[in-house]
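## retry 2 of 3
previous attempt timed out at serialization; input unchanged, resubmitting
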Amino acid sequence: MDILLIAGLWLDGSAWDDVVPTLEALGHRPVPLTLPGQGDGSASATLGDQVAAVVAAVDSASEKLMVVGHSAACSLAWLAADARPEQIAKVVLIGGFPSADGESYADFFDAKDGVMPFPGWGPFEGPDSADLDEEAKRIIASAAIPVPEGVSKGVVRLTDERRFDVPIVLLCPEFTPAQAQEWINAGDVPELAKAKHLDFVDIDSGHWPMVSKPIELARLLAAAAVEA
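## retry succeeded, writing output
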């Protein structure tokens, strides 16, 4: 199966470099996506540009595919399901939750000169980064791409109720499936509360399993694809 891989904030398609070989060895066709404004040199990209790039990648697949979103890009994966519900076999969300219609995409940190730079490791102390050694942190931080303000402050627009028919796997790294279920039950994640097919999968990692547990992550993604 084609597996579209969308990394979160500050990352480009190379974030999946250690995941791709195992997915290929297991018979799948991984497609890491470099988003507008996150690796193509554009500081003026918008959320709409990123959504268009994801939808174009979905449209280019010859058959139904699985779309994987990491962190903030969980919203991008879900926006793809909203735009092309009939073309997506499954959505996998890694360490994040889709924003609801009308919410901002990822306005989490201060923007400077039109971009939102990586804020350093302070905000991610604890479970998010506990499994990363200093070298891994240095590599991630040095490669981090400032996210255009037009992306981070973009407004999510969802229009097609058929998105709730698309099966979802919520891959839980720095939080547990039980915690995720509690947040959904409490009304904190309205999009997932309405999903008709939602499964939880645990992975013992921090927020960046493609860095700290790439082989295990690939195997879990391959398993999800087989079941799609």
